[in-house]
């Protein structure tokens, strides 16, 4: 057992040393840019709820209590997304990120494009939130695994900048759209 533990420690140290020995280059910046875009999209989609609530309430004649269910769907989806972290280790970071991101975008497109019932919108919001969190968490792990330990904090800070930029972009876009255009907001979120 001690020999196996010693081998694992040596192997991990060797991988860390190998990452640190690599020169920072184009692939590192691409990983940071991709992670930044996932953070941007996650923030944009995560902030959408309060901006679609007035349009949902008008179109479906919903009370504030029922709108709270829509907000809860996002949280439930996020919990499911967190639980899928086990799958990330099995299928890989990049495939999980691509699947989560594509599915979240698709849910927004479907919700915006079809004349749906409120129940269908709740299901789509739950799936979108779960898959969005899957993409976000996969991207964060993938980022950490591809960067040298020196400078990792700087790269992480650059990648996470996508989150506040996405949040502020959502607020800006929502502020210029009429309340009745909540579906357009979903389309924009799906496209981002």
Walk me through what this model shows:
- By secondary structure, the chain is mainly α.
- Helices cover 85% and strands 0% of the residues.
- It has ten helices and no strands.
- The radius of gyration is 20 Å and the shape is elongated.
Layout of helices and strands:
Layout: H1 2-21, H2 26-46, H3 49-60, H4 64-83, H5 85-91, H6 93-113, H7 118-146, H8 152-160, H9 162-176, H10 182-191
Helix pairs in contact: 2-7, 2-8, 2-9, 3-4, 3-10, 4-7, 5-6, 6-7, 6-10
Number of helices: 10
- Helix-strand pattern: HHHHHHHHHH
What value does the average pLDDT take?
Answer: 83
From the alpha-carbon coordinates, what is the Rg to the nearest angstrom? Answer: 20 Å
Strand content: under 5%
How would you classify the quaternary structure?
Answer: single chain
How many beta-strand elements?
0
Q: Uncertain spans, ≥5 residues at pLDDT below 50?
A: none
Structural class category? mainly alpha
């Amino acid at each position: 057992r001690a020999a196996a533990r010693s081998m694992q420690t040596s192997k991990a140290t060797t991988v860390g040393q190998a990452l640190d020995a690599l020169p920072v280059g184009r692939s590192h910046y691409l990983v940071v840019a991709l992670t930044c875009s996932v953070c941007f999209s996650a923030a944009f989609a995560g902030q959408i709820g309060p901006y679609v609530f007035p349009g949902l309430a008008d179109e479906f004649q919903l009370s504030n209590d029922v709108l709270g269910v829509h907000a809860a769907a996002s949280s439930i989806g996020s919990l499911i997304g967190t639980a899928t972290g086990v799958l990330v280790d099995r299928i890989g970071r990049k495939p999980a990120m691509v699947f989560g991101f594509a599915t979240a975008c698709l849910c927004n497109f479907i919700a915006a494009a079809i004349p749906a019932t409120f129940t269908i919108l709740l299901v789509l919001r739950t799936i979108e939130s779960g898959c969005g969190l899957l993409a976000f968490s996969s991207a964060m792990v993938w980022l950490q695994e591809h960067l040298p330990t020196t400078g990792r904090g700087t790269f992480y800070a650059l990648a996470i900048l996508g989150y506040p930029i996405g949040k502020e972009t959502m607020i800006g876009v929502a502020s210029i759209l009429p309340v009745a255009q909540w579906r357009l907001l979903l389309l924009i979120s799906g496209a981002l």
